[in-house]
# Entry
Amino acid sequence: MSVARILASKGKTIHTIAPHRTLLEAARSLGEKRIGALVVTGADGQVLGILSERDIVRALVAGVGALDDAVSKHMTEDVVMCRISTSLHELMEQMTHGRFRHVPVLDGGEQLAGLVSIGDAVKLRLAEMEAESRAMRDYIATA
# Structure
């Protein structure tokens, strides 16, 4: 099972934000779209970072004035990405080890192909486990 399967079921929509936008604009975008992270991209579409709800909360420790800061000041610059061919197991291991919940997905080259969350991964893994369980029950019932 690979990341391609997650994208096939959830879609390849990628919500982005420019680095000069404010945290307030980012927070509004997250709320309106009911998502947990935005990929920060340059004018050329290159990934510069990622901004999550957690990043915004950490920024607010300094006070509500941080909402006027540029996204680039608070984004995570060291973005861990995966490929469409990355296995579900490897993806979940990366996310657990790195303690992050969102991973941009690259296609065969360096183009963004989507964004997956830990929730997307868990949902697919649960479906996989349910199918395995059902197959096992069917096998036992017919044996």
